[in-house]
Amino acid sequence: MWHAISTLLAETLDENTIVERRELPGGELHAAWYVRYGAHHIFVKSDAHELLQKFTDEADQLALLARSNTVRVPQVYGVGSGRESSFLLLEYLPPRPFDAHGAWRFGQQMARLHQWSEQPQFGLDFDNDLSTLPQPNAWQRRWSRFFCRTAHRLAIAVGGGKRAGVW
C-alpha cells in the first residue's frame, strides 16, 4: 500500500519521499494515518481493497462540497489501491477544539451550504453514507422534511448502540 501511496503522491504533488508516517487514533471505521511527504501534510484513510469505490465516492463528494465554497473541506490528493487495500489521500487538517465559537462558525457554514444552489428543492442526485448508515438524499420540497430524515438517522446511529465513527 505504501508504495502505491508514494507513487500517487509523486504523480499528484511532486517527486519526494515520505518523511514521517504515524497511525492516528480514532479510526473506528478505517485505518487513519498522518503522513508528511516533503513539505505536504497528508491524511490517509485505508481499508480493504473492496472499499475503493466508497473512497472514490467520498473524494467526489468532498470535491462537490469544495465547489460550494461554503464549508472548509480537505483538498483531495487522490484515491488508489494496492494489492489488498484501498486508500484516500487528503490534505491533513489538524484537529481543533470545538468550542462555542467554532460551533457557531460551523452552523453559519452549514446554513450557507444549504443556500448554495438555486435548486427549488433540497437533496442530491445521489445517496451517500452518514458514518455507517445509508443516507438517502431524495429531493424534498421542504427543508424540514429533508433535515428530519438526516437527524433521525443520526439519532439511530448514536442512540441505537451503533458508533458514528469519524473515519
Overview of this structure, please?
The structure is a single chain. The chain has 167 residues and is an alpha+beta fold. Helices cover 35% and strands 25% of the residues. It has helices spanning 2-12, 52-68, 100-113, 143-159; strands spanning 18-23, 31-37, 40-48, 76-81, 85-91, 128-130, 133-135. The strands form 2 sheets. It has a 5-stranded antiparallel beta sheet, sandwiched between helices. Strands 6-7 form a two-stranded antiparallel sheet. The longest helix is centred in the middle third of the chain and has 17 residues, at 52-68. It comes from Sodalis glossinidius (strain morsitans). Belongs to the fructosamine kinase family. Pfam families: Fructosamin_kin.
What is the structural class?
Answer: alpha+beta
Mean pLDDT: 87
Shape, per Cα inertia axes: globular
Count of DSSP-assigned helices:
4
In CATH terms, what is the architecture of the largest domain?
2-Layer Sandwich
CATH homologous superfamily assignment of the largest domain: Phosphorylase Kinase, domain 1
CATH hierarchy, class of the largest domain: Alpha Beta
Helices and strands, in N-to-C order? Answer: HEEEHEEHEEH
Strand composition percent: 15-25%
> How many strands?
7
Work out the count of structural domains.
Answer: 2
Spatial strand sequence of the major β-sheet: 1-2-3-5-4
Point out poorly predicted stretches. 163-167
CATH topology of the largest domain: Phosphorylase Kinase, domain 1
Instruction: Describe the main β-sheet briefly.
Output: 5 strands, antiparallel
- CA-CA gap between termini: 18 Å
Task: Please give the radius of gyration in angstroms.
Answer: 17 Å
Helical content band: 25-40%
InterPro entries: Fructo-/Ketosamine-3-kinase, Kinase-like_dom_sf
Protein name: Fructosamine kinase
Family: Belongs to the fructosamine kinase family.
